[in-house]
User: What shape does this take?
Amino acid sequence: MNTSPDAAQVAASAARLGRDLTDGQAGLLAVYLGLLVKWNSRMNLVGPYGWPEMLENLIQDSWHLADLLQTLAPGPEETLDLGAGAGLPGIPLRVFWDAGDYYLVEPRQKRAMFMEQAVAHMRLPRTRVICARMEALPPSRRRAGLIVSRAFMPWKKLLAEVRSLLAPAGRVLVMSNETSAETVDGYVLECVRDYAAAGKKRYFRLFRRVGEDF
Assistant: This one.
């Protein structure tokens, strides 16, 4: 199904997945899915999905993530979404969770252009796109209260490489299909949350930075 959905279709599909959307949420997700279908046909952003599969396999993660992030205290003033690609999980996440400033970081120009269009069409507040590698982020973007990663790199490597991007006691949210109680030096594992999506169990692991430098 490569046509663009309307809000009613999105709401009905989400309800079948166990999520009741407000009219506003359904409308925003319909805009995002319409753009994703259109761009995906030209540059293969997310694989050969129609919009119902995109909703179930990709966007569903975002509303589960929003449920977790709404429990954080204090909420982050600034979030970095690294390797944001087609804006997942970040763009649909902002439909459900709008705390602080949110930066979608993506080095590939065409993907960054897609995200800029989506953010503009959806009029997402305090949500911006940065077309850059994480190593090139300026000092002003190296104080994140939260870093989100969706299979950006192996999680142990990620934790090691993003430490300099975090504010004191900043957190890193790792999304994966498997779980572990392991952590690495400089972090504690704050919580593990499992959820079901597309017939499989998936996991969020939330790590918090600790150490002697603050």
Notes: The mean pLDDT is 93. The two ends are 52 Å apart (CA to CA).
